[in-house]
Design goal:
It contains 15 helices and nine strands. It is α/β, with parallel strands linked by helices. It has three domains: 138 residues, Rossmann fold (3-Layer(aba) Sandwich), CATH 3.40.50.300; 32 residues, no CATH class; 82 residues. β6 and β7 form a beta hairpin. α11 crosses α13 and α12 packs across α15. The longest helix has 17 residues. The two termini are 36 Å apart.
Length: 297
């Protein structure tokens, strides 16, 4: 754990890069700069890029180095405000009602007590409002949510307060750090982008990816790491439905390590191809070219 004081922004871009590196994350200067500015100004950071390039991991490491709680809201098609903010525990409320006597049920204060905090289920956004600067709020894959939820989120990120009719207004004492991620399955609205500092995370270069693997898998054989990274970079040049990200590179190195393999050849690559290729059509295409991919590596 970094010795940085809780909730304080790092002193410089280089300092943030060093702290992230100590947590196992290799951040480019551009990413570290956008993150530092976001922390200093209290602005959300929107990270876009292909699947598996480290967007979610960035938020996790940011929470780790700052000693903050990571609160994650995983977006999906059809998510609504209650699933993201709060819900009433109707099952417990009904049990409580059944336990009351007839006289107690006629008491208005007893009935209003059904909407006390003990029956309130806290979802990620409400948890982040209450935690304030003690948290990093990760809104993951915002592009999977619909336009209505995005509009609601826009308002929340502006005020960081909500009104629960039965309870009242709950406002953050101070703002949490906010990281949004998007895989660009749809275009986000300009209004949301204007609220955020934006950074695109692309695939790393050959040397950058080797350094990432060294950080995350320090015991891996150097020659094997270089061959795996070269093979993955070659796969990204192919016409695949799902290009392998850095996460798949790490999975491939780990899979080969489990088998005790210190050399990437056609046989070991074929045995572990499922660690890096996650689509049937892609698998057939790569299998047909596997000898060449390994030879190029």
């Amino acid at each position: 754990m970094s010795d940085q004081p809780r909730n304080e922004a790092p002193a410089s871009v280089a300092d943030l890069q060093a702290q992230l590196r100590s947590s196992g994350y290799l951040a480019s200067r551009g990413l570290a700069t956008a993150t530092l500015i976001g922390l200093r100004l209290g602005r959300p950071i929107l990270l876009e890029g292909e699947v598996g390039v480290g967007k979610t991991e960035m938020a996790k490491c940011l929470a780790h180095i700052g000693g903050r709680q990571l609160i994650r809201l995983q977006c999906y098609e059809g998510i609504d405000t209650h699933q993201a903010l709060y819900e009433w525990d109707y099952a417990r409320q009904m049990l409580h009602v059944r336990a009351l006597s007839e006289g107690e049920l006629s008491d208005a204060s007893t009935v209003s007590g059904l909407y006390s905090p003990e029956f309130l289920i806290e979802r990620p956004l409400l948890a982040a409002i209450r935690a304030g600067s003690k948290a990093v709020l990760l809104i993951d894959e915002i592009d999977r949510a619909d336009d209505e939820f995005e509009a609601f989120l826009l308002e929340l990120l502006s005020d960081f307060q909500i009104t629960i009719p039965e309870v009242g207004t709950i406002a953050a004492d101070d703002r949490p750090a906010v990281v949004l991620t998007s895989n660009r399955t749809r275009e986000l609205h300009d209004a949301l982008k204007r609220r955020c500092l934006y950074h695109w995370i692309g695939y790393p270069t050959f040397e950058e990816e080797i350094e990432i693997v060294r950080l995350r898998a320090p015991d891996a054989v150097e020659a094997l790491v270089r061959k795996v990274v070269a093979a993955v970079q070659r796969l990204r040049d192919m016409d695949l439905v799902k290009l392998p990200g850095v996460a798949e590179t790490l999975d491939w190195v780990d899979a080969l390590g489990v088998l005790g393999t210190s050399e990437l050849d056609a046989a070991s690559a074929a045995d572990t191809l499922g660690a890096v290729i996650k689509d049937r059509d892609d698998l057939e295409l790569v299998e047909a070219e596997l000898d060449r991919v390994v030879a190029d590596a």
